[in-house]
Design a protein that fits this description.
By secondary structure, the protein is mostly helical. The chain has one domain: P-loop containing nucleotide triphosphate hydrolases (Rossmann fold, 3-Layer(aba) Sandwich). The protein is built from 5 helices and 2 strands. The chain has a two-stranded parallel ribbon with strand order 1-2. Helix 1 runs antiparallel to helix 2. The longest helix is centred in the C-terminal third of the chain and has 15 residues. The protein is elongated and about 60 Å long.
């Protein structure tokens, strides 16, 4: 699930007095995959709500995060440094970090198309 979509759902749940139910639902999912975390600044409540989901899952269920941004760059997404550190802590505790070091597939595809266009 896109990080922004998850956070938007959490904000809507909080506004509708359904946050506990939504957080519990995400807490029960066997593997929560969060894509594109660290790219966009989140709604001011977003990081706090995401932290609640991560805390609900802590030491119970797995979380997989995909991001092209290093942890140090997450301060653009999570503007509160203490909350940013707490989220990184939750995600990395007893976890494995896999750095692929690969270039973005979309960027590589775009470059290949540009080269084909220029050549032909």
């Amino acid at each position: 699930m896109l990080a922004t979509k998850l956070v938007n759902e959490l904000v809507e749940a909080a506004d509708g007095k359904q946050l506990s139910k939504t957080t519990a639902r995400y807490g029960r999912v066997g593997l929560l995959c969060i894509d594109e975390l660290g790219y966009m600044e989140l709604d001011r409540r977003g990081p706090e709500l995401l932290f609640q989901v991560l805390t609900e899952r802590e030491e119970k269920n797995s979380v997989a995060v995909a991001s092209n941004e290093s942890f140090s760059g997450w301060t653009k997404t999570f503007t509160d440094p203490r909350l940013c550190a707490a989220i990184v802590d939750r995600l990395t505790f007893n976890g494995a970090i896999i750095q692929t070091g690969t270039e973005s597939y979309r960027l590589a595809h775009t470059k290949a198309l540009a080269e084909q266009t220029a050549a032909g």
